[in-house]
Amino acid sequence: MARFKDYSYEQMTMLPVSFDRQILPGSFEYNLTYLIEECLDPSIFHHRYKNDDGGRPAYDPAILLKVVLLAYSKGITSSRKIEQLCRDNILFIAISANSQPHFTTIADFISSSHQEIEKLFLQVLMVCDQEGLIGKDMFAIDGCKLPSNASKEWSGTQADLKKKKLKMEKAVRRMLSKHREVDKHGLDETIVERQKQQCRKLAKTAKKIQAFLDSHDDRKGVSGRTVQSNITDNDSAKMKTSHGVIQGYTGVATVDAKHQVIVSAQAHGQGQEHNLLKPSLESASANLKLNKQERRQIKITADSGYHNLSALQYLDQEKLDGYIADVGFRSRDPRFKDYERHKPVTRLKPKERFTSNEFKVDLKHKTCICPAGNAMWLQCEETKIGNSLFMKFQGYENDCRHCHLRKRCLRSEQQKSPRQFAVKLGNTKKHQQTSLIEKMKQKIDSAMGRHIYSQRLGTVEPVFGNITSSIGFKRFSLRGKQKVNGQWQLISMIHNILKIHRYAWNGS
Ligand code: SF4
């Protein structure tokens, strides 16, 4: 019969642990410790401590910084979880030198350090630059929409919130009158208590909404229109993403193409990005201390979200080499001629009105045949609509009046006038010569433009992939623009430290 060694869980043992030996050379923890101790300046936190003459010694900010950066690099942002790791995980015990900071200390350190984080982000960026990780050849700008610590259910314009508050007050009144009724006849104590609790909760929420309405005006969006405010975090915005509508911030990153180092990181409480090109570029230039000449040598790429006249005017004034795609960029690119075949087939009803492809136009002979096979008459050879030139045709009244395809051709069945059809000939000459938008189109449609723009995707998108999937940072846990901005810079700084670890200091 086989024999095995005895074992028992009912025993205790003591293990000698050397903190030094837990942090192995070549590991991320080792490089992080070296970076903080030798390259960064944690003394920037010292002005916050006023315990020279009395009070308990505080946790060293260098230790807190190491713990927080290590936890964030593993996607752990909860202060309670970080505290637990400092008690249970040997790596965190070693890196914190068994300090075991309380979760409130960690939470306070993260949420109140946005100014210091900004300075540390710059210091890490300088290390990246010294290690030759920044090429300053091409920058790609893009944003990543992430939810924040606020519910979209608490969003609305002043009118919406007033309505919500009135609804709650009405519910409270209804419940109170119901209680009075019940008091007369007597009811189960637990049910009465639960209803009272609900009533108190509703009254408290209505009061909170009123306090918000008293202290805030309607919020204005980028375009100057009224947008929804949020009671919990009024700096955040309700925005559409590919995963649905969220309440959150757009984390914008300017990324250098050489090793995908983030050279500027800013969080904005808005979904639209078209006015963010200028602040992103100015922040990147300031962070890297670039002079005008250096700025002009860098190629700047951004997607159609950043394409608008004021952004192009800024690039033109500053003489920057920008490649900003417009929404029609793909449709003009012959390489994407049949890209729609990869799109999933939807079960949506086909468009009911005829499309322009169903009208047969012969520009040379200036004729047009409508979907019913009738010839249309040439109304105008060349007319200007906006900045474009069109040739216009119109159906014959008699044809259209009795046509069996009226429903699909005209705007409504009641329409009395015949169908008009305009075919685009091109843009006006003046427009072609002067418009910055047209110039950008021509630039980006050129072979060189397409080649440079094609590098944008591989430069900036993997950065967001790394932050959200590899690191695992999927939402902001703080509230308020300043704090969220600090958190975005913190996570961007970790991304850059990982680049130093991987490409400069020979990490595995
Ligand atoms: S409505 Fe007029 S233009 Fe349209 S298909 Fe019929 S005849 Fe042609």
From TrEMBL:
Residues annotated as domain Transposase InsH N-terminal: 20-111
Pfam families attached to this UniProt entry: DDE_Tnp_1_6, DUF772
Start and end residues of each Transposase DDE domain: 369-501
Top-level division of the source organism's lineage: Bacteria
Annotated protein name in UniProt: Transposase
